Amino acid sequence: MKILVINGPNINMLGIREPDIYGRETYADLLEKIKNYADKKGVEVEFFQSNHEGDIVDKIQQSYKKIDGIVMNPAAYTHTSVAIPDALKAVGIPTVEVHISDVDSREEFRQVSYVRPCCVACIKGHGTDGYCEAIDLLLS
Q1: Category of 95 on φ-ψ map: left (φ > 0), alpha (ψ -120 to 50) or beta
Q2: Which member of 64, 77, 79, 99 is catalytic?
Q3: pTM recorded for the entire structure
Q4: Of 22, 27, 77, 131, which residue is the catalytic one?
Q5: 20-58, pLDDT tens digit by residue?
Q6: CA–CA separation, 53 vs 41, rounded Å?
Q7: Residues 6+ apart with CB under 8 A from 28
């Protein structure tokens, strides 16, 4: 199985941006955690991070018939993008939405997800471990 892990805006700033909310793990720590977990599960994993919505859409479209599952933290685009869910619907790749914080207990605007209806599940508030949980969901 090949899984694509997509991270949206500012995820590359983990450990720097609001560590009281997002923790002190760095983006490099996150990638290492996911890679080690995927290796134990026998899963090939590819990473993609962008602060640009169009680049994320392009990556989703390029994954058609090449990727078996997507683990995605759309970050701020969760609440604003229509293009990302349209791309997910177009390719039909099973996707799990992941958020490090519990977005449902934060500001009202963070409780709206345009991406969630296109996903098989949403994991929120489990810190970076949510990415590993998402891999398990895609494997099941």
Answers
A1: beta
A2: 99
A3: 0.94
A4: 22
A5: 888 899 999 999 999 999 999 999 999 999 999 999 999
A6: 30
A7: none
